[in-house]
Structure formats: C-alpha cells, structure tokens
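Cont'd.
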Amino acid sequence: MSKQYEIPIGAQHISLLEPLHFKFTTENEKVVRTDANVYYVHRGIEKACCTKFKFRQVSFVVGRVCGLCSISHTTAYSQVAEKLVKIEIPKRAKYLRMLVIELDRIHSHLLCLSHVAENSGFEALFMKTMQYREFAMELLEAVCGNRIQYDFSIVGGVARDLKPLVANSIIARLKTFMPQLDELVDIYSNNWTLSLKNKGAGVITKETAMRLNVVGPFARSAGLAIDVRNDTEDLLPWKEVGFEMITDTAGDVYARNMVRLRELYVSIRIIQNVINGLPEGELVTETKAFPDGEAVVRLEAPRGELFYYAKGNKTQMLERLKIKAPTFSNIAGMVEAFEGNEYGSVPAIIASYDPCLSCTAR
Amino acid sequence: MNKIETNLATLRDDIRSFYNPAMHHFIVMNAVDLGQQMEVQWFFSNYAPPGDITTFYALVNPDEMIPSIREIVPSAWVAEAELVDLMNISIENTSKGFVLEPDFESGPLRKGK
Amino acid sequence: MKTFLNAIGNIFRQPVTTKYPFEPTFKPDDYRGLIGFEESLCIWCRRCEAVCPPGAIVFSQDMEGKQTYHFNRAVCIYCGECVRACPKEGALFQTAEPAPCALKAENINNGWNKLYDDALASREAYAAEKKRRAAAEKTAATTNPIKPAASEGE
C-alpha cells in the first residue's frame, strides 16, 4: 500500500462557492475516500417558520432559504399551504408560476455551467456563459421586480401580473438567446481542453444513482429518469406546456453539462408555450381558512426534487414545516462519485454537482 | 399521500418488503413533535409509474431507540443524522454532531424550545 | 484560424458590462422599490403592520389617540404584501425608487428595535389610558345624577 494523504477542501476555498467541507483521502493522486461536512449555515428556518411567522408570511421566509432557487421554495410552500387551506388556485397563476420557475432554471443552469468551466480552468468560457446568463436575470427583474428573492408566489396565487410589454420582451430576448445557446452547446461539447477535464470525471452509474436516491440533473445524466415535472400534473400542468424528460447515459461531468444545456431548450420551449397560451383570469384565490391537517408537495427545482411537508393546527402558526432541498438527497451520491478520480479534477466535479448548501442546511 | 402505520419492532421488515431500489425513491425522514409522543415518518415515491407518495409512520416515545434503515436504504444516513440533531431522538448507529455543534443545545425543533 | 481572427476582432469590440456608477444599470418600470405612505388617506386599521413579514412597519400612538406611521427601509423586503393588504386605495403604494443606503449615524438597526418596542408600549399605554378614562366617565355618568357617591366608586 502506498502512502495516503488527507487533503481538506473548504469550508472556505477558492474553487467552492458554498460553505462545504470535504476531506479527501488520496493515494497517488487518486481519491480513495471522502468525508463531507455540509452543515455550516444552519439558520433554523424551519423553527422560525413554526414559531415567529404566520402561515401567509412563511412564503416570504422560505424564499430566503436559497438565493438561486428562491421561486421554487416559495412556490412549493405556497402549494403545500394551499393544500392545507384546501383551495384551488386560478389557472393563470399556475402558468405564471411555471414561467418564473423556468426562467429561474435557465439562469441557475447557466450559472452552474459557468462554474464548471471556471473550475476546469476555462475562465473565458466562464465569462462568456455569465454574459449570456444576464438576459435571464434582467427578464426575471422585469417580471418579478427584483433580480433575486422574487417573492412571486403567495398563498393562493401569484403577487404580480405579467404585462404584455414584458411578455413581448421575453419572447424577443429568448429569440436572441437561441443562437447564443447553440454556440455554448458547441463549445461545451466540442472543446478539446474542456473535455480533458470533464469526460470520464466523477462518474456515477445508474445503479448507484438508484441505490443512493440521487435527484436532479445529477441523476438524469446517469440515465435515471427522475423529474418531478413528469410526475405531478395536478399542481402545475407541466406536460400541457411541453415538458420533455432529458436523460443521458454516461454519468460524468460532461454528461451533466449536456443534460443541463439540453434542458435549457426545454425551458425555452415551456416559456414560449406559457406566454402564447396564457389563460385569462384572476391571479389570486382569496380564502380566510386556517391551515389544517398535513400535506406534502414535490417540485422540480433547478437542482432536483424539492420536498415540503407541512402540518397545520387551525391556527395562524404552522405546527411543523419540513424542507428537503435537492442537494440534501445528493450528498450520499456526491461523496461516492469522487472515488477513483484524480484529485486535480475534484473542483470541476464539485461544481458539476451544483451543490446548494444554504438550501441543505436551512 | 398514502400513509401506512408501522411500529419500531416491525419497521425494518415493513420497509424491506416494500422498498425496491429500482422502483422506489426514498425522499426523506421527518419527525413531528406531538407533545407526549413523536411521529416519525419515512417518505417514498415511485419512479414509474409516477404515483402517490407512500409514507410509513410510527409513534414513538422521545427516549426510545429507533432502528436505522440504512442497510436497506444506504442514503438514509443523512436524514437520520439530521433528525438526531434537530429533534433530539436516538437512532441506531447515529451519533450527534452532523448538523449542529456537539455542545449546542440539543433538539431545537422540539416543542417548548 | 477562426479563433485567431476572433481574438483580433475582440480587441475592437465594446465591453458587455456597464460602467455602473457612471452609467445607469437596467431597471424595469415596476421595480419593487420603497413603500410610500399617504397619511391623509390612511384609515389606521394597522393591517399592513399585521401582514408585514419582517416587521418593517409599526404604528405608535400618543395619549390623544393619534397614530404615527413608521417604516424602516433596511428591514423591509419590498414584497408588497402591505400594499395588497391595504383596504384603502392609495394609502400605501410601492414606488420604483430603490432604497438609499443606510448611514451609521441613522442607527438603523438598534434604533429601529427601540422604536418598535416603544411604539408597541405607547399603544399599550394609550389602551390603558383609554380604559381608565372610560371607567372614569362611566363612574362620572353613574355617580353625578345621584348624590351619594361614596359606595359607587368601588
């Protein structure tokens, strides 16, 4: 047996965006074991939601769980609260929620792709991807009034309407984005330098993904077809607006890039369909009921399945709120997928997981 | 949501006979403080055909030892470690200190904390 | 060869970033900015205070019953929930103006916490005062017509 070295990464590190700590045991540059510590930012949000805030205010609190998938958290909470007060929201509100979720997915996937490029040592591609991402942020600002922390979903519907002028600008900006996306796909799939760092790195097989219950693009890149948009039809009508499952087979960093890029095409199509088929009607269903009983909701956030459990007791305060973020399910898979890789490709692998630790630790 | 009641003695057998890695996705574990007792829940969903969420639940006393299911569902260790810290319950082969610092006041999500 | 030409072309290309302090950045027309308050229209129902998630609105009350509106732009999350809850059109509204930075001299956190507690205390004091006055009026009303007032006060 050769000599083993332990190399820590994090909780503060240049190649990490998140407060996350990995301890790698390496042998001849190969990672043989990984330990992870992910809870550096536990903020007690679940507790605050059940003691300090009324159930209508909680949708703004859970929006602060994560900056990138803020809309997924607010929408998932709003849905679970709507189940507890037993109301059905207007169809226009459902469509507007899907619109913002998909715009959010575009900017989140592009952010992840840019960080994979950066951590693989391709800074120019990082800047190019970020440049192309900016349109999604501006559109979100035009739709929701804010670049991050959208506060768009409220219990009973959505907070703001989509103006025709904004809808036209979304269609126009998406049209200019299409050739840019084609260019990105070309670079990410054909660039030789990037392929050296990405192909064959961080491989996870379909069997492992199933065994460890991995979710999101991480699982889909390995061929495991898990996407909540495919499952739940009652809350948001995804199939009606043209959802399509994207999977790959290789399960490495390259496959994850490709899954994310191809999902962008699906997102663009969903946004176009939503705007073209936006039904008329109210934005909010009013109710004076208090939450009662228990309910669960699953929603596909950019990183995978988001799960909310809530229990009410006929008062303004919830009895229990449980948030399961996508990265939480992926921790076990993340630790396993490092094994056998060279230490040099670890930063790119971490970025390709797209970890969101402030979601996980809450 | 499809709720199935179980108890600590038969929990592992119930989940073993239900869970098939190729068909079921383990979502997460959860616990609710009911005052005297705790309701511990295990959530599962289907890959295909997409269907309802199956929930196993057991009513336990806060000081009881809960069997671990990680030999059936290997990724459950994350959820178990989180519950041990946040709800101050005991699960087999799970020590404190994954979520909170070991010297932190235990069980912040319990009632009355 | 194509890469090479691209690189030469890039020398003459404009930057894609905006020179922010000197040029304005993108801002939509209905940006979620500062919350405006029109005192003449307010009906003092305090519904905005009840729904505000972070507690950025509070009403204080003096001994005559007159209420004063306080708003903290550093605590506000600009969600617009108060505007939606307001039953009186135009009393509360959301402007497109971004909030200015807070200065140290404003003592915007600790000063606000104190103001918040004082405002709640002032309302309690007024409620107690009102109760006392009502009781006094009641005693006055019941005692005045009848002459002997010694046992009525209890």
